[in-house]
Specification:
With 353 residues, this protein is of the alpha/beta class. The chain folds into two domains: 2-151, Response regulator (Rossmann fold), CATH 3.40.50; 203-349, Alpha-Beta Plaits (2-Layer Sandwich). The protein is built from ten helices and ten strands. The strands form two sheets. Strands 2-1-3-4-5 form a five-stranded parallel β-sheet, with helices on both faces. Helix 2 runs parallel beside helix 3 (82-92), helix 7 (234-241) packs across helix 8 (243-260) and helix 8 packs across helix 9. The chain is rod-shaped. Residues 1-21 have low confidence and may be disordered. The structure holds magnesium ion.
Length: 353
């Protein structure tokens, strides 16, 4: 995986300063003999930031206060031994590289300390200067690599955390987007108010507009008249001439009736071959006149390749302000049924039977 530069810009900060303002690695020298401390300190003061301690306890209190790169500890000291000190130092800062100075008599204890990982290098007293230089140089380098490695691991951890965070955010974004799409689709289907075959209003939009008109009718004290009509013998049109012709008949009728209707009227396809014309502000008598006009215009339709004339039966009902609106369409439908019963191609009113 390739990480972009932006991912790696997060820096890792250490709580304790690695070295003082000199910018040099820090060397902690621990020995109970002041002469040894003095000579080692003189040797390394130019190359490193040198700290000294004359006992294990003193060294530990230094380690708790600041980070050091390398610890050089004498094995034989009053109180804690050097390997005991380095074992504790390991717990405080595992990156501080631990070097033990020892005499041949202590070699068993030292080997054990090395094997247990408490001591990284050891030097026997008296040491050779070039040997000491090599060991300290290697220890400093080792410490540098440990820190660099830890730094990289930490950067990688942060990058992974950042990536995870981005994945989480992206997932949330996508979920949000999906929700928006769903909402948009819902709106689009709500907007689908037209019957796709005939282009007139569908039943859903009829019901919406009817509810609005009922409210308006009540407010203005106006009636609403509904004329429901059904094409006579439509099944035989489909059966004889095919469904394509049936569809054309429906389209012609929808166009004809729409052209006849006032701008305030709503023509809707109510069912298969059933339509409803909603006429706000129109009384039952006026509705009857209008329905007769619609009926005649349907009968006058001539369709190419269709030899018969089409007729429709109408049922008209009127809703007066304050009457239960939910019954209007049923009342119109009942009147329509009566028109069918009475021989079709006619208009029947809600009160006529
Ligand atoms: Mg000693």
């Amino acid at each position: 995986m390739v990480l972009s530069k932006g991912f790696l810009k997060t820096s890792v900060s250490t709580t304790k300063p690695d070295h003082l303002s000199s910018g040099l690695p820090t060397l902690l020298l621990v020995d109970d003999e002041p002469e040894i401390i003095a000579s080692l300190a003189d040797m390394y003061r130019r190359s490193y930031n040198v700290l000294t301690a004359s006992s294990a306890d003193e060294a530990l209190s230094v380690l708790k206060k600041q980070t050091v790169s390398v610890i050089v500890a004498d094995q034989r000291m009053p109180g804690k031994t050097g390997s005991e000190l380095l074992a504790e130092a390991l717990k405080i800062d595992p990156d501080a590289v631990r070097i033990l100075l020892t005499g041949y008599a202590d070699i068993e204890a030292v080997i054990q300390a090395v094997n247990q990982g408490k001591v990284y290098f050891y030097l026997t007293k008296p040491w050779r200067i070039d040997e000491m230089d090599t060991v300290i140089t290697r220890a400093i380098e080792h410490n540098r690599l440990l820190k660099a490695n830890r730094h990289l691991v930490e950067e990688l951890r942060l990058s992974n955390a950042e990536l995870e965070q981005r994945v989480t955010e992206r997932t949330a974004e996508l979920e949000q987007r999906a929700k928006e799409l769903e909402e948009a689709n819902r709106k689009i289907s709500e907007l689908a108010y037209l019957d796709p075959l005939t282009g007139v209003a569908n039943r859903r939009s009829l019901e919406k507009i009817f509810a609005r008109e009922v409210e308006r009718g009540v407010r203005l004290g106006l009636p609403i008249t509904a004329a429901m009509f059904d094409i006579d013998h439509f099944k035989s049109v489909n059966d004889t001439f095919g469904h394509a012709m049936g569809d054309r008949v429906l389209q012609f009728i929808a166009q004809t009736v729409s052209a006849q209707a006032r701008p305030y009227d709503l023509v809707a396809r109510y069912g298969g071959e059933e339509f409803l014309i909603l006429m706000p502000g129109i009384s039952l008598e006026q509705g009857k006149t209008a329905a007769e006009r619609f009926r005649a215009s349907i009968q006058a339709i001539r369709i190419a390749d269709f030899p018969k004339s089409v007729t429709a039966s109408f049922g008209v009902a009127c809703l007066l302000p304050g009457q239960p609106p939910e019954l209007l369409f049923d009342r119109a439908d009942r009147a329509l049924y009566q028109a069918k019963q009475n021989g079709r191609n006619r208009v029947k009113l809600d009160i006529e039977f």
